[in-house]
Amino acid sequence: MYEHHSQPLLPRRQFLRRLLKHIVAAAAFLSVGLAIGILGYHVLERLSWLDSLLNASMILGGMGPVAELQTRAGKVFASLYAIFSGIFFLLVAGIVIAPIFHRIMHRLHLDVDIDEGDDSDGDSKE
Questions:
Q1: Is 1 a member of any domain?
Q2: Looking at the predicted structure, is the pLDDT value of residue 116 above 80?
Q3: CATH number, position 99
Q4: Residue 46 gets which letter from DSSP?
Q5: How buried is 22 (Cβ within 10 angstroms: 0-12 exposed, 13-18 middle, 19+ buried)?
Q6: Which of 48, 79, 114, 119 has minimal CB crowding within 10 Å?
Q7: What is the pLDDT of residues 21-64, one digit of tens each?
Q8: Could you tell me the residue range of the domain that residue 35 belongs to?
């Protein structure tokens, strides 16, 4: 998916195309995560679709719920959805940041070779 460190840096136009693909993928993931929240709030808490969207968006965005939860099932769902949202945020951020991070590392030619026989403290055993 990404070029090897021995290959030249991807031209800017192709990099921007790659970044756009990652942003579209992140938006698709966000849509799925938001749909899970909307459906959960609508079914378990019997909130309207608009209030379900608001609650799910606020939780997914890290702000917290807006509507006061009434049912036990809704409270359990909100707890699990909040945990899911925290991990989900990291996933989506990683999808967007990955091509940028790769380009920076590629540009800096950061290449770490790990040799098992390498003496890292500088002392030779001759």
A1: no
A2: no
A3: 1.10.287.70
A4: -
A5: middle
A6: 114
A7: 999 999 999 999 999 999 999 999 999 999 999 999 999 998 88
A8: 12-108
**What's the pLDDT tens digit per position in 73-114?**
999 999 999 999 999 999 999 999 999 999 988 888 755 543
- Domain count within the chain: 1
Residues contacting residue 41 through CB under 8 Å, at least 6 positions apart:
47, 51, 52, 55, 56, 67, 74, 77, 78
Residues 99, 84: Cα–Cα separation, whole Å: 24
pTM of the predicted protein model? 0.76
Query: In this structure, is residue 49 part of a structural domain?
Result: yes
* Distance (Å, whole) CA 29 – CA 104: 25
Structure tokens at 49: 């679709």
Q: Is residue 39 part of a domain?
A: yes
With 0-12 / 13-18 / 19 or more C-beta atoms within 10 angstroms meaning exposed / middle / buried, residue 89 is middle
Tell me, yes or no, whether 116 lies in a domain.
no
How far apart are alpha carbons 61 and 68 in whole angstroms?
18
Residue 19 token pair: 């970044």
